[in-house]
Amino acid sequence: MEKMVLEEEIVIVGAGIAGLATAVALKRVGIRALVLEKSDGLRVTGAFLNLFPNAWLALDALGVSHKLTPLYAVRKKAYVTNVATGAVQEVSLVGNNRCITVHRKALLESLAEELPSNSIRFSSKPIAIEAQGQEGPYTIRLEDGTVLIGCDGVHSFVARKLGLAVPVNSGLSSVLGLAVFPVGHGVRGDALQFVDVGIRAGILPLGDKEIYWFLTFNSTKETQNKYKKQVIENYTKDFPPTYAEAVRLCDLSTLTLAPLKLRLPWDLIFGNVSKGNMTVAGQVGCSALEDAVVLGRHIRKSFIDKGRLVPGAVAGAIEGYVKERRWRAAWLIAGGEGWLMKMFRDMIFYRFLLKRLIGVADYDCGKLPLLDDQNKTH
């Protein structure tokens, strides 16, 4: 295959939430980016996302929140049930804890619609950076002022080039599924969670006929390799009938049983998150939306009136983005799956820390300084 050398000013690797959101953020400040995606279309796996106020503020800045808010109801409460004791904890999801569950596909499509049709190249996997002699379809040549942004997840091609440590296994695995109830499920719109030692599960109603369900459990290679149905039946036999029915109505062939991997917090604090004009974004869940807005703000600062990136100033813009995001990303990882659960066990986590951790959603990533229409031609 003939090799193609990319000499774009902005190249984003990965058309997931982070990659598309970053491209939208740059477009809104007058900068056009090229997004490379190895899949042959949008990656819609992952089923659902719970979006808290921090995510909606980012979506407001990106100009896409209005597409999603009419489609989904705001949850008012969550109920966490201790399976062993039957004790139920009620958690308010109003105000700063507001939570809306959306289809991942709907979010991706809303972001993609904001971009020119030729700004995403599918079936495109970069194979080299600043290397001209290797076999393969894409070599990314970083000229002075060119920006390379890795938004390609925990197995990031760009992160490897930066020298970031390989993500580690959290010791947990997760299963996600969507159940469709032909005549309706009759479940209120509240989020329901069920916890036991080493297990967390839940159901999230969407409309009258759909329920998203999930299961997170302590895992080993042996449990990860078991057939999905066997794992689900083994871990959920003591759960309420509603959960069992949601699992039963789900097409098990569409499920993904996968180990949860993450970057260690100190890797983001002390590691090379950027190098010159190259950086990564979206390494921590839905904070990818925040990353996109913050990165767009900082790159905008390196722009001049003619609509071009200032040579030599791009690295400073990226450094500012990394400085603003590094500690928040590390904290979000430290407060996420596998860490506090291992330290304090499930019951203590949910009883004393759940509300405090939800509070990290009270975060505003800022606005994007929009350019005049005549400058939006880059």
UniProtKB/TrEMBL annotation:
Oxidoreductase as UniProt keyword? yes
Q: Which Pfam families match?
A: FAD_binding_3
Query: Any idea which UniProt keywords this protein has?
Result: Monooxygenase, Oxidoreductase
Domain of life here?
Answer: Eukaryota
**Domain FAD-binding: start-end pairs:** 9-179
InterPro entries in the record: FAD-bd (IPR002938), FAD/NAD-bd_sf (IPR036188), MOase (IPR044560)
Q: Does the keyword rRNA processing apply?
A: no
Recorded GO molecular functions are: FAD binding; monooxygenase activity
Could you say which protein family the record assigns here?
Belongs to the 3-hydroxybenzoate 6-hydroxylase family.
Q: What is this protein called?
A: FAD-binding domain-containing protein
What's the source species' lineage? Eukaryota, Viridiplantae, Streptophyta, Embryophyta, Tracheophyta
